[in-house]
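For concreteness, we quote verbatim a single protein encoded this way:
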Amino acid sequence: MRSARLLGICLTLASSALVLSGCDVFISADGRVERARGELAKGDYQAAVIDLKNALESEPEHVQARLLLAQASLRVGDVKDAEKELRRAREAGAKPAEVAELSAETQLALGQGRELLAQIDSNQLALVEPLRSIYRGEALLLLGKPDDAAAAFDAAQRASPRARALIGLARARAGQRRADVALKLLEGVPENSPDHAAALLCRGEILAAQGRFADAGVTLQSALAARANLTIFQQANLLAILTESQLAAGDVNAARTSLQSLAQLAPNAPITLLLGARVAMAAQDYATATAGLQRVVAGMPDFIPARFLLGAALIAQGNLNQAESHLTRVIQLAPDNLEARKLLARVRLRMGQPDAALELLSPLQADADADVNSLIGLAHLQLGDSGKALSFLERNASGAGTNREKQLELAATYLRAQAYRKAVLLLRDIPHVDGDAQRDALLIAAVAAADGLEKSDAEMKSLLDAHPKDLALLNAASLFLAQRSEFERARVLLGRALAVQPGDTDTLLNSARIETAAGDAATAAARLQGILASHPEHVPARMGLAQLALQANDLKGAATALEPLRKQDPKAIAPRLALARIYMLDQRVDDAAGVITELEKLTPGNAAVANAIGLLYLDSARYDEAAARFKKAIDIEATNAQYWMNQARAQLALDRRSLARESLEKAHAVRPDSVMVIASLAMLDVRDGRPAAGAQRIAEMRKAHPDDPSLLALEGDFYAANHDFEAASRSFDAAMSMRPSAAISVRAYQARRNGNLRDAAAPLESWVAKKPDDFPVQAVLAEAYMNGGQTRRAQAKYEFLVDNATPNAVILNNLAWLYYQANDARAESTAAKAFQMSPTNAAIADTYGWILVERGKVADGLKIIEKVQGNAGPDVKYHYAAALARSGNVNAAKPLLKTLAESSDTSTAQADARRLLQELSTR
């Protein structure tokens, strides 16, 4: 009974459906086609598509149904379906005249301008005038030929004036940079014309191209109101241009609304994703922008606007390696893209590749604009040529008017070039801006360099009094004080900043940096943890914690700090590279391999990442794996000399000198003027017993660039490698006279010391007399005094460094040893500080442990030395054996001493071991 009841209900419903449908099932194919024509005329394209598909189900060879379905498919934006229906219409017997116009429209929609033009000119399409000339003009516009397009539209107008030809002619005139003529032509399209919306769209496009974005927005809104007469492609184009105009006018909210409408029409279209990225970037949401652009680039690898914008978005996120890869591809596709060249040059400068930046910019020097001059100047500055740098940057500033960015860039260059007075005068003319402390920070530094710290303090006080609640200024001033090791004053300013805005992440981050510089790692870590408590995704804070952990040799802590970044962003490259390095340092081979595998899957075609992984392996002495990664980078980008250089380094480490020479020659072919490449080849010549060949390379470079001090320094290195230390010293001295630098002063000292020449420390003394705050060179000078037996001068220099420079375990260790030799009571406490900073360093632990032993604290000292003596040198092993003996464990000490005494080593440890062994034997 139950199944019969259900059957009855089903029959009732079925008969009701027939009644409600108006017997639609009995409509013929021709009837459906006629109904579809009416639906198309009313703009009801989806209903037309349904009717036409039903018609074709009953009559698959219905030509008119196929043609109308192609037309409807075009209207709803389904170009591939339109193309397919046209093909089937031809197969069903459609005449050439019936398919000609639809075929032309479809090819235009597919962007097949070249194919359409060829078919029109060969009369394959049965088009008559004026349509023949109209479609010919639109094909020529697609091909970027406005002059020929204008002639075609003129011919169409002469044949039979139509609004579409007039609009096409306006677009051609705009392409000829005759925008005023184009706008005047569009006035000829009457408001009651079906093409009026298309004319408004064209007008809006021209206005936007002129930079008249407000006018463009008004016009495009009018076109939007009349969009029923526009194809879906025209509507999408309208919304795209409207979104661009609103973005350019700074109305991000309006742009977002227009973009949402565009996304409803074409959610996955490249232009939609591109504009979505631009809207996201306007809101500084670079992660969203990057995700959208990566989708575009994945589907359209050579779509230049998407690659270019992706490069910019990656730069904003600090992903310079990825940005360089994308921008390099943009330059390959469009060598004339000036903005891409500028952006890539900036990236390479930030990556410390001034030669590569200059290579990009050199073709632009003849007609250089302010940006190019600025970038060229900065590149020369990185290369150490202050004269050329100032020449370009002053040229840039002369045309920059009151451009704040350019003026600040020039002021910074004046500082680096030691033109301090010029910097002060320029900076005083630049007004203060709340929240932007770059000018104030430069001014404080310039006054300090030009007039001394007292005047600098007065300048700082004046600025802070005038702007007591400027967070950026308070932070900048605190960092300046921290550079002078005035940590208490710096802390006071940061306290004021936090009072103005409690919990400000920038202030807390700077506080962590200052505490790190002051040697208070615990407080620095607390500041960073405070940031992460409220902002767990804060990348700089996590990277800071990892750095602190590394400084404390806490590799597990560093990994713990970085792992959340890896999980937070499944595509983040920089944290993964840092994490892989940490795992390698910690000998967590499998973990490192896992991270590297992730990186390689994330960036299969990224040469920069392959190179970075190679460098990780190189640092870990895994030379075969390093060479494989460098080869991968070269396979992707064979024109990068640095990759060839890195491969040569790995090959040399494996003693594959012939292969290394090939790699270096490849690098030389790419960058024949690279000093680094020439130096490497010259040094390889020395190693291969061909010093004359190396000398000739350098001589040729010197002849081509007689005023280049870097070549003199290279010549010094070459002579030093060849053990001609007198010649090396002369070359270094000449280089120092042309362009003094810290690096050359150190190399000059080493040459003199290795050659037992007089006044070995003189180059260092000359440099620090000019640059007393160059603490690294001061440290080398202290060591030079120590090695030269000038213990008083060495002690004084190390005390100066302890009082003025950032706390350093090696400096404290060396000072402790000098105190120990002088029987100074401060030896133990100083050694303890060094050991606390670097407890796993064998030499530092040995100094502290031995001083404890010598002070009678044998058990404590022995315990410390015992932990580090396993793989240490003979001096540490001797101290361990001597400490064992002093502790009463003579039996354990004797075998160690015997091994040292019988070794081939001729150090003082051998003599001390023999003496102590003899003493123990007589007891």
In short: Residues 682 and 696 are 9 Å apart (CA to CA). Residues 2-20 form the longest helix (19 residues). Confidence is low (pLDDT under 50) at residues 1-23. The domain at 869-923 is CATH 1.20.58 (Methane Monooxygenase Hydroxylase; Chain G, domain 1).
